[in-house]
Amino acid sequence: MLRNFIFLVFFMGTWVLCSQENIFLQRAFWQANPTIAQVEAAIAEGNDITELNGNLFDGACYALLENVDNTTIQHILSKKGNGVDKMTHDGRTYMFWAAYRGNLDMMEWLVQRGAKCDIEDAHGNNIINFAANAGQRDTALYDFLLGHGADINSTTRSGANALLLVSSSATDFNILTYFNKKGLSMQSVDAAGNGIFQYAAKGGNISFLKDLVAKGVATNTYNAKGENALFMAARGTRSKQNHKAVFDYLMGLGLEPDIVSTDGSTLLHYLSGKNKDVALYKDLINSGLKADLANKEGTTPLMMAARSNDLAIVSLLASHTKNINLQDKKGQSALTMAVARNEPAVVDFLLSKDADHTVVDTKGNTLAYYLVQSYDPKKPEPFEEKLASLTKAGVQLQMPQHNGNSLLHVAAKDNNLSLLKRLATFNMDINQKNDEGNTVLHLAAMSTGNTEVLEYLISQGADVAVKTEFQETVYDLAKENELLQGKATELDFLKSE
């Protein structure tokens, strides 16, 4: 609680340093379980309680996810702009987030104010399946949803019903029996043919797996891709990766670890993105699985580890890879993926193993493109460290990218003012045209939702008089930009004399 309070004080005192730092979009604020008075104080300081971030989460979402007191949440939802059916991340209303956290009191409060229970999110999940996938096992929650129009027979886009989804977190048969009595079969399978045992393997609860075996549930079955339960165990859940003991148990039942699925993937492909159990990797590699086997997309386990796993796993897989510079069908190598998504230490390691710093993807993008895509103004240190390593290796930031774009074009198209300012030190021609005849200012005029980026580029020497190949001016493009509609009077500074 003391640490959370320190975080709260820190954010309350420093949010004004950056207009993007709305304190309500910082999870640390909500982790401290703020009172209504603290929320109101933050609003008085200029923070917007209704603002959605880039991923469409707002303060109310985070309050629900962090189990803030319901009285505070209800106060937040009374604010104009936070209606009970407001669309947030992935097309979910607040009812989804309340169900995700098993907050039945808030669910009841929301329904009393008109919230709906018979809706789906942008991924086709209804609220019952969303709660089941989150591991909620309170039958009263499901009774409430069913009593307000939710469909027990609804499935996800992969064909999984609530009984299958909850199997990944079940510890006994109680919740399965509940769904069975509501009409869902114990023999349910998803669209690929995965049943209860496969979903339970995903959760990795060995005790529950043993209970399923004792009940006679089939264990050594294969889905439409030729995968057994080991593959579901390798996927794990959003919050948990399975350790070696789970795989030892499953293999002890006769499940074979050396299967290659119809898309060319092995267990190592599924594990290498997140699983950090070194002993498990060593065991599978010793059993014959290849760390450099490419699936049908050309992706190897090393590439997947380089994208998002720890250095220890990357190092292990690299030691069993003959060609560290293999590229997938998009032309991305392990180094490409590390530059785009992983830590500087992984980039340095791959460079030390002679990873090719001149690699170019199928679109014509170099490592410099992936470097700038990784830029986070809130955490610039990794970018700076990778930049130093790549520059030392010989990567040129001035090299043209896909479609003849400079890195300035890339940043302008993404409307990334912070990145444009960082790139200003690299002496790039701000008025250079890409292969379509557009300058950086042209792209910014077509994509930005405010004039700040445009004003900055002009201050750096961007020429408003340059026309596109269709003889359009920057002013013409800005006027056609729907995001700038209603701001015509503010665009006069774009007119050329």
What is the fold's blueprint, element by element?
Blueprint: H1 2-14, H2 27-31, H3 36-44, H4 59-65, H5 70-77, H6 94-100, H7 104-112, H8 127-133, H9 139-147, H10 162-167, H11 174-181, H12 196-203, H13 206-214, H14 229-235, H15 244-252, H16 267-271, H17 278-286, H18 301-308, H19 311-318, H20 334-341, H21 344-352, H22 367-373, H23 380-393, H24 407-413, H25 417-423, H26 440-447, H27 452-459, H28 474-480
Summarize the structure.
This protein has helices spanning 2-14, 27-31, 36-44, 59-65, 70-77, 94-100, 104-112, 127-133, 139-147, 162-167, 174-181, 196-203, 206-214, 229-235, 244-252, 267-271, 278-286, 301-308, 311-318, 334-341, 344-352, 367-373, 380-393, 407-413, 417-423, 440-447, 452-459, 474-480.
What percent of the residues sit in helical stretches (DSSP H or I)? 40-55%
CATH topology description of the domain at 400-497: Serine Threonine Protein Phosphatase 5, Tetratricopeptide repeat
Distance, first to last CA = 61 Å
Order of helices and strands: HHHHHHHHHHHHHHHHHHHHHHHHHHHH
**Beta-strand percentage?**
under 5%
Please, what is the CATH homologous superfamily of the domain at 400-497? Answer: Ankyrin repeat-containing domain
Mean pLDDT: 93
InterPro entries: Ankyrin_rpt (IPR002110), Ankyrin_rpt-contain_sf (IPR036770)
Pfam family, one: Ank_2
Protein name: Ankyrin repeat-containing protein
Organism: Croceitalea dokdonensis DOKDO 023
